[in-house]
Every structure is written in structure tokens, then in C-alpha cells.
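Practice problem: predict the structure.
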Amino acid sequence: MTIQSINISSSSPLARRSISQLPINLFASVMGITGLGLAWREAAKSLGLPSLPGEYIGGLGTLVQIPRQSAP
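Answer:
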């Protein structure tokens, strides 16, 4: 059995989108915003609140993350 290595050059899209290049404060802010959206969804189920604000908050978390992944 042989193990093949994968060479990822610096110009490769995989190298540019590495998790090691993601700032920890951005990760924490995205997790916090989407967590708030999930908490609102659960509160809407149990307390009878409108669920639409939770969907908007979760969408905001997605929008915060997407432009950062395409940046060099």
C-alpha cells in the first residue's frame, strides 16, 4: 500500500481557503450570530414568538461569513 501526497501550491484555491487563515474573532462572531438565530427559533417554538427574526439573524450570520471566504 502506498500513500500519495497531495501538493497544494500557494496559488491553489484549497490553500487560500484554509481554516488556519480564518481569524478567531471572525469565527466567534459568526458562531455567536448564528447561535442567536437558532436560540430565537427555539424561543419562537416554545414561547409563541414570531420566528421570522430568527431567520433573519441566521441569514446575517451567513452573510458575514461568505465574503470572508472569498477574500485572499
